[in-house]
Design brief:
Layout lengths: L7 E2 L22 E6 L1 H19 L4 E7 L3 H17 L6 E12 L2 E9 L7 E7 L3 H11 L7 E8 L11 E6 L4 E2 L15 E4 L1 H6 L3
Parallel strand pairs: 1-8, 3-4, 3-6, 6-7, 7-8
Antiparallel strand pairs: 2-10, 4-5, 9-10
This protein binds inosinic acid.
Length: 212
Amino acid sequence: MATCSPYIVIGDDEKGYDLDLFCIPKHYVDDLEKVYIPHGLIMDRTERLARDIMKSMGEHHIVALCVLKGGYKFFADLLDYIKALNRNSDKSIPMTVDFIRLKSYCNDESTGEIKVIGGDDLSTLTGKDIIDTGKTMKTLLSLLKQYNPKMVKVASLLVKRTPRSVGYRPDFVGFEVPDKFVVGYALDYNEYFRDLNHICVISETGKQKYKA
Ligand code: IMP
């Protein structure tokens, strides 16, 4: 089994930060409990992931595949850092992009059914928002196999520590997080909270307010 490069572990006892310490859109102040991973830390970690990914890619041309919608922020920021490395080092790797949309969640629960929309050039570095049970990623990987890619590497900003895990680990991970439902930085709860910069823990009020 391939090994995953090192990542930041957020412990079960992590309390996060008071909302008052950061800038939060007014429409969400009652719907969140804590800021869990501030935007600046997400960016700093993503910058390092870009370096690790470039190092491991060798001379391979990269097709970067974004898993929408939750992966769009991570994907865009990761690619910006990869592009900066391409501009500023002796070695640079050509890159094209593609997008695929997967949907499997309603409220904070997996529906068990994974819908795939889009994606036409699949051979790949895959940018994913979060691995919870790992079911979505396993399904996507079996789909990618049909296109006989030379190599598939998966980068996920977050991986959850959960007993529901099917044991899947991506190649590059930003943070390992406790088994809590998190939102922000494009991660949603029924399509809300994507417009939030920090990764936050949703409050009971938020869950009720935006329940499907
Ligand atoms: P998995 O198949 O259980 O690994 O779930 C992966 C997908 O579920 C992610 O791509 C998200 O769309 C969604 N998801 C799982 N946990 C969370 C969460 O804490 N916040 C927001 N979305 C989540």
